[in-house]
């Protein structure tokens, strides 16, 4: 497996956010994690990508309490849960955060080039930019436009494109459909499938399960910080209790 998470637990002071969570992502897989609001999905991605550990260091000794992290994360055969976030990114595990978060006062092309900051090879950067433009033609059309003036769907495509500029080994995407109209959601999900088909594995956190479960190779359901189910779309969606209680279907 490319990514293996073993018994991951995260506590903010006395609040247990993740509880003994284990999951995996294989080469060329698109794996989804679904669950209700507050289930711990975003914390899971932040812990895997090293941001929770960074937050722990920032808060160390402050009046806001402590963060406790337990468990192991292996990526490409290497244990990474003790590494700082920038070293995890350098190894090819990239997080595309919720709410897109472009550098709003920068142009589209400037945002994309910021995503290539880890690369020194100018030819590789040029090649990756062409790949992003092929995947998202609208970004080429808007390349000189200030990012803050893009639509929500265009900003989401920009966020994914920016992450792809360093040619990640695994792309983690947090709630890409948030705030998007149905047609834009459909287009964004199609583009995420194309990312997987291009050879880049994806770990996708999303609540739009009726669509995402069917495009994913495997799915996990997270509730109250625990994985409560795993399987294909067919296996999970035929469970009536799971559908109504945890997936809102």
Structure description:
By secondary structure, the chain is α/β, with parallel strands linked by helices. It has a domain at 3-99 and 170-245: Rossmann fold, CATH 3.40.50. Helices cover 39% and strands 25% of the residues. The chain has eleven helices and ten strands. The protein has helices at residues 41-48, 51-59, 85-90, 108-114, 122-135, 137-141, 152-164, 182-197, 209-215, 233-237, 240-245; strands at 3-12, 15-25, 30-34, 67-75, 78-79, 93-96, 170-174, 202-205, 218-223, 226-231. The strands form two sheets. It has a six-stranded mixed beta sheet, sandwiched between helices. Strands 2-1-4-5 form a four-stranded antiparallel beta sheet. Helix 4 runs parallel beside helix 7 and helix 7 (152-164) runs parallel beside helix 8.
């Amino acid at each position: 497996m490319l990514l293996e998470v073993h018994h991951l637990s995260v506590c903010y002071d006395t609040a247990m956010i993740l509880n003994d969570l284990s999951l995996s992502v294989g080469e060329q897989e698109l794996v989804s994690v679904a669950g209700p609001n507050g289930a711990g999905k975003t914390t899971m991605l932040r812990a895997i990508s090293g941001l929770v550990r960074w937050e722990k260091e920032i808060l160390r000794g402050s009046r806001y309490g402590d963060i406790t992290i337990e468990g192991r994360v292996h990526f490409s055969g290497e244990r990474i849960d003790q590494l700082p976030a920038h070293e995890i990114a350098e190894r090819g595990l990239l997080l595309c955060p919720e709410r897109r978060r472009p550098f709003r006062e920068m142009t589209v092309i400037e945002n994309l080039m910021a995503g290539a900051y880890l690369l020194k090879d100018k030819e590789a950067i040029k090649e990756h930019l062409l790949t992003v433009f092929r995947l998202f033609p609208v970004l080429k059309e808007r390349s000189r436009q200030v990012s803050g003036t893009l639509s929500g769907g265009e900003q989401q495509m920009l966020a994914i494109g920016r992450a792809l500029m360093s040619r990640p080994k695994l792309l983690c995407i947090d709630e890409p459909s948030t705030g998007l109209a149905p047609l834009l959601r459909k287009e964004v999900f199609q583009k995420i499938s194309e990312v997987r088909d291009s050879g880049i594995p994806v770990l996708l956190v999303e609540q739009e399960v009726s669509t995402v479960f069917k495009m994913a190779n495997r799915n996990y359901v997270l509730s109250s910080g625990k994985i409560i189910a795993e399987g294909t779309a067919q296996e999970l969606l035929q469970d009536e209790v799971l559908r109504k209680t945890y997936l809102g279907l």
